[in-house]
Amino acid sequence: MTHFFEPGDVDHPLTSKEGWAAFVAESTTPPAVPPPAALQRLNEAERTAYDQAREDYHAQLVIVSTPTIRHVAATGRKRILLNRHQHSARRGLIVSGPAGTGKTTAITQLGKNFEQLGQQRGEVLPDSLPVV
Question: Does the predicted TM-score (pTM) go above 0.85?
Fold first, then answer.
């Protein structure tokens, strides 16, 4: 069986401009939970759609605020503030630790939060490219 992809169907990696823009723009909201009586009255198609929405939400792997993520985010925000008006000798951040502790997740969440706040303040231009 052959499947033809439309240009909008392709998931871009987070390391591409398109992938990063999609990551920053995405928002995760859980599906509305109907009251138990209404849930029992759903027909088969409605129940399937409801179950699919729940599965899609859980498949998005909502980020949990772990101590590592909170520490990297707080330290990263401090570095960003300290570097705001620096022309040289910028302060950096090295994130290290064992595999699976959330280093990449923490950095991507820091970048997403920084860009979203910059967009809200009008500081990030639409065609700018973030650099980490």
Answer: no
